[in-house]
Amino acid sequence: MDLTAFWVGRVCILIYRRVVAMNEFKKDVFVGLVSFSGILSFIFGQFIISTMLFGIAALSSNMLLESRAKLERF
Q1: How many C-beta atoms lie closer than 10 Å to residue 38's C-beta?
Q2: What's residue 57's pLDDT?
Q3: How far is CA 53 from the centre of its chain?
Q4: Do 38 and 50 form a contact (C-beta atoms < 8 A)?
Q5: What is the pTM of this model?
Q6: What are the pLDDT digits (tens) for 7-50?
Q7: What is the pLDDT, as a whole number, of residue 50?
Q8: From CA 17, how far away is CA 55, in angstroms rounded?
Q9: How far is Cα 2 from Cα 46, in angstroms, rounded to an integer?
């Protein structure tokens, strides 16, 4: 197994657990900060890092929307 893929998977699992455990305000702040960091890293030429940050922001935002949708159903 590729060691890089292993660590990327572990990081994604840790981020998922942290985001799920946060309240709504902290999730919004987290998504905003990660998006802003992605924009800055893109401007400074760190394209691989910015791609990862945008992916993390998209996944976190999607998890945030899913949890809000579950609350609205009940």
Answers
A1: 21
A2: 85
A3: 7
A4: yes
A5: 0.61
A6: 767 776 777 677 666 677 777 888 888 888 889 888 988 888 88
A7: 84
A8: 16
A9: 23
Quote the tokens at residue 56: 């993390």
Distance between CA atoms of residues 45 and 49, nearest Å: 9
The residue length of the chain stands at 74
For 25, phi then psi, to 5°, come to -65, -45
The three-state (H, E, C) secondary structure of the chain, written as one string: CCHHHHHHHHHHHHHHHHHHHCCHHHHHHHHHHHHHHHHHHHHCCCHHHHHHHHHHHHHHHHHHHHHHHHHHHC
- Domain ranges (residues) in the chain: 3-73
CA angle at residue 38 from 70 to 59, to 5 degrees?
A: 20
